[in-house]
Amino acid sequence: MTVFRHLLAILLLPFLAVVALPYWLLSSWAPVDTRWDSVPLEWFPRAVGVALFAGGLALFGWCVSLFARVGQGTLAPWDPTRKLVAVGPYRYVRNPMITGVATMLLGETIIWGSWVIGLWFLVFVLVNHVYFVLSEEPGLERRFGQSYVAYKANVPRWIPRSTPWQG
To answer: Taking the model in full, what pTM does it have?
Structure first.
């Protein structure tokens, strides 16, 4: 049942953001979108995009496993962690999972050379920023109290610390 909970959350949230919606955008906007097809050395930006996508996927996977093992929950708002996760990449930045997803989208933007996916990447980042400021962080303060307040005061939201937080 636990594996099902995580798969459902991944399929309904990041899969839609990183696979389903970009596929739809690439298909629907193809006549006006850009591509690398006629660019000399197109393999280079594509290789950079693949590296970014792979790095984002690895970070996302690490965060999902920490949510399961340490937090005893999922990434989904309807099945959140029961314990505050402040280990691994969470010692450097408060939202590495969203950073991983955004990095995958940036990688896709570069892989395809698509301004449409690039625009979706920017919308994704903006919507998540607003969501975290207005909903996620106040909710975490209510759920985890002073431990989250201390964590929030010491670990930045998006730009990683240079050294891990020792809280």
So the answer is: 0.90
